[in-house]
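thread from #wetlab-drylab

HS: before we spend reagent money on co-crystallization trials with adenosine monophosphate, can we at least see a predicted complex? here's what I'd submit
DV: go for it
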Amino acid sequence: MLNLVLIGPPGSGKGTQAVRIARRCKVPHISTGDILRQAVRDETPLGREVAATIAAGALVSDELISSLVKARLDWSDTAGGFLLDGFPRTVGQARLLDEWRSNLVVVHIAVPDEEIIRRLSTRRICQSCGLTQSVSEEWARVEDCPYCGGTLVRRDDDEAATVRKRLITYAALAEPLIALYRSRHGFITVNGAQPPDRVTEDLFKGLDSLG
Ligand code: AMP
């Protein structure tokens, strides 16, 4: 049973690393951002409720996100564990998760703000396959996903002003969250300002060291 939580600022490579960890540890990858964005695309009642909040770079309420995550954790595929990506984001959410599940392994990916701003200005997401990719400046106008041919778009919340807001929100909420987890067994922190494969290497080493 491996109950994993991944914490990192927007643009820390969290999504990329989450896919790799989930595959290696054979647990489902539960990304609250992906679930919400899908709901917005599908124009479900949930999607309509959160669309403006997400676009503004603000957080949806603890109540809403918590009931969504709790329902997802009740699926049978989490019997052997899970990887939560994007939850908890607040101490309140962390306390709720503690009520539902124990023995959490918390992985923290640390990246300085300047590096995040640089990365998010070139981040694109494929409208068809959902893959997140980084485009270099000269490629920024290329419209097709190199994997599936879908259209690459900038996430609404990756606009510069919104990114600054998300970073302020992240810093205010993540510090107490990390302080809560840091003192516990099962907390791993890695330097996310490295090439993705090096980050993965450090993450796997950290996970292996927990035994
Ligand atoms: P992400 O892809 O993790 O950056 O999430 C995108 C957006 O979804 C966030 O900016 C929030 O609006 C919303 N969201 C995702 N997870 C949470 C959460 N745990 N608490 C509140 N809002 C969330």
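DV: The pocket of adenosine monophosphate is lined by residues 10, 32-33, 36, 53-54, 57-60, 65, 86-87, 89, 93, 157, 166 (CB under 6 Å).
HS: ok that's useful, forwarding to the group
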